[in-house]
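Thread: Newbie trying to understand structure tokens

Hi all, I'm a second-year student working on a class project, and my supervisor (Dr. K.) asked me to get a predicted structure for one chain before our next meeting. I've only ever worked with sequences, so writing a 3D structure as a token string is new to me. If someone could post the tokens and maybe explain what I'm looking at, I'd be very grateful. Here's the chain:
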Amino acid sequence: MKTFISLVLLFPASLFAQAEFLTLEKAWEMALQENPSEEVARARLNQAKARYQQARSRYQPTLGLSASGYKVKYSDTALDQYPSGTPDNAELYDASLQATWLLWDSGVRKNTVASSDYLQQASEASQMDSREQLLAEVGQAFTAAQLARANLRIAEADVEFQNRQLENSIRKEQAGLDSRTDRLNFEIRKLDAENTAVQQEANFVSSMAALGALLGQPIGNQLPPPVTLKPDDDSLPTEIPDVETLWNQARESLPLLRQSHFQVEASRANMNALKGEYGPDLSLFGNLNAERESDPAFASDDLGNAVGIQLSWDLWTGNVRKQRVIEADYQLRESQATFRQQQLQALSVIKQAHAEFLASVASENLSAKTLALSEENRNLVEASYQAGRETLLRLNEAQRDFNNAGSRYVASRLQRQLAWIRIQQATGTLRNQVGAPEDN
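---
Reply by user tm_fold:
Sure, no problem. This is what the structure looks like when written as tokens:
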């Protein structure tokens, strides 16, 4: 209850009842709708889907049409081979319809499709990772804006306090009960508080500009201020699972690990596809052709066709094939090592985020107690000063302690919010806090 009273004193009641404010959930929704990074990730995913369909199309037959018409002038040597009276030139026309169907290619096609499929799934995981990163950045910027706004309100409350003391000092000086030095002290304190308020306002404007960029807001669009930190807000947890539980969750849902896993499988399938090039290809082919002189008015007598099966086998390629397999093998090893490295990094991030969250909870509890005591102390010192039982120096010290305690409490409270965001990002669950836009 003391903490609640303290924050109410720090933040005017009108702020809690303002009609329009920006919540973190709304900021996340705006970012997913307007930030270009979401469009970039979606475009990359669609590219991967197109490449997968390209690979699958190798299972279908190919059909081609060709036609030509040309005029030939025979050489004298050629004419000598024909009876006299043969024309020395001719018009020739031909057309051909060819169909080819690859029946077997020693597993190249199968593994190419598998590799493309894994890469598509890796792109889907990459899109999720990009979304998680965007949401985390928005959360950090939003929290920074909340902190800047809270510090601004603390500075404004300090201005109000110093102004109240100055007005009391002026009245006491006029009544001969106070010295000019006390009045000058409060004037100086008031100016310092106003200067701090100006700096905090600049920090708030700057933080809102950074947040607006992440939300994809164009020039001229002014965001509403972030929702004010409320002391009775219990939306943030105070306890979280242990590191092992968080790690098991991350192994299943963390997009970065899923992306790396699919890249390993894609590299393995690609190497198998290259190994398949050592085997033969078997194809079914057929063509329908037409040839005619003088004009292109083809008739049934001009038609011919052929159907057959073709076996092709590259027995020697100058060692190129072998080196491509070796290259693919090292690409597989690289992707496997990258996967292990990302697992270690992900576990490290979880441990850090876990420790940071526990520390933020403890810090917030201590800061809340300090704030309550500082407020009580400041009020007692203020009353004693007005009664002439405390010195001006002691009042200045008590007010400074109260302001510092308020800033530390707000910072620790928002630090817990940041730590909770990082826990969710580290386990790949942050995107669950907001409805994801539909993929195109």
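A couple of things are worth pointing out once you decode it. Confidence is low (pLDDT under 50) at residues 1-19. The CA atoms of residues 53 and 113 lie 8 Å apart. Feel free to ask follow-ups in this thread.
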